[in-house]
Each structure stands twice: as structure tokens, then as C-alpha cells.
Amino acid sequence: MNAVRYPHRTLSAILSIMLTIGRLISFKYTQVTEVFRLKLVMVLMVYILPRVLVTKMKYMDKNKKLTGQLNHLISIAKDGAQGYENAAEDVKDVALQQMFREYSSQRSRYAEELSKEVADLGGSPDDSGGPLGALHRTWMDIKSAITSGSRDAILKACITGEEAAVKAYTEVKEEPDLAISTKEIISSQLGGVEAALNSIRSLVNVHD
Fold first, then answer.
1. Which of 51, 58, 130, 141 places its Cα 20 to 30 Å from the Cα of 28?
2. What is the topology classification, in CATH, of domain 63-207?
3. 41: buried, middle or exposed (CB in 10 Å: 19+, 13-18, 0-12)?
């Protein structure tokens, strides 16, 4: 897992070993024949170096896929933060306003945590909204505008966004190449999203 997370370290270590062997042969063991040195260089170039490069490319491909998935979760978290802030402004229930603002702050924190993970993988955190994040934002904007603060309509809009978020988080969590630390963060955030979803569902059910 750590190799996937830090592929440049693996490559650097192997290249360092290769350079050390070359220096030993060139400077310390002058009794080694020229033929042996050439054979060793051939082995390094034909067998070891290509494998190192192939391994690096595989790690880069995996990291590119992972950063894309994490960036998708970042967009969902940011849209969720904005959606809950919109809901807090539109709903008239003071208790709901406080709850929505807490969820908004929570999603902002989630986005920051995921952004750090993307940076650790060598990627750039993406601020653009993904399709599920856009769905959440659209639901929140449309429902808030049409209902002018209708309590149940806003709650149901939140449920729509959270169901999309749960699906996205679950899919990324099952990715086999995730580092343990990243999977723990995603699992923790997924638990927070599911808790919010259940809480909001219970509020809707009470008033149905």
C-alpha cells in the first residue's frame, strides 16, 4: 500500500542501490574484470531498469485513478457544505438551522481532509463539482427556491444529496488500492454522512 502511495520512494531506493553497486565496481573493486562490469551493466539495463519503469508506471496509473476518485468525493463534500448552508438560510426552524450549519461545517472539514490525501498521492485537489455533487447542489437550489423555506421539501432535498454521497463514498471505499490511512478517513466520513442521512430521514418520517 505504501508503494502505491509513495512510488517515487521505491524508484529512488532502487536507483540508489544501482548507483552504489556501480560505484563499488568502478572505484573499490578494480580487480573485477571489464567483462564482468559490462555484464553487470547489461543485467541492470535489460532486466532491472525496465521492471522499475514498468512498476513506476503502474503506480502512477493507480494513483491517477485514486486521485480522480478522491477529487470526486471532494466535490461532493464541498457541494454538500454549500447545500446545507443554503438549507440553513431557507428553513425557518431554528433547530434545523443549527443542524444544517453543523453538517455544512462537517462537509467542509471532509473536503479539507480529502484534499490532503490527494496531495499526499502527488495529485492536485480539484475544485470542480462532479456529477453527483452537481446533483446535490441542484436539488438544494431548486427545492429552496420553489418552496421558499418549506421544511419537508428541504429535508427531502437533503436526503437526495446524502443518498448520492453514500453511494459515491461506498464505491471509493471498496477500491482495493487505497492506503489503509485513506480508507480509514473515507470510512469515517461515510459514517458521518450515513448518520446525517438517518437523522434527516427520521425528521421527515415524524412529519409524514
1. 51
2. Ferritin (1.20.1260)
3. middle
CA-nearest of 130, 137, 97 to 114 is: 130
CB 191 within 8 A of CB 165: no
Return the sign of the alpha-carbon dihedral for residues 80, 85, 91, 92: positive
Q: Which residue has the cell 541492470?
A: 44
Domain ranges of the chain: 63-207
Question: pTM for the whole thing?
Answer: 0.68
Q: Which three cell numbers stand for residue 38?
A: 559490462
The set of long-range contacts for 143-147, using a CB threshold of 8 Å and a minimum separation of 24, is: 144/86, 144/87, 144/89, 144/90, 147/90
| Residue 122 predicted with pLDDT over 60 | yes
Would you say 166 and 192 are in contact if contact means Cβ atoms under 8 Å apart?
Answer: no
Residue 106 has pLDDT above 90, yes or no: yes
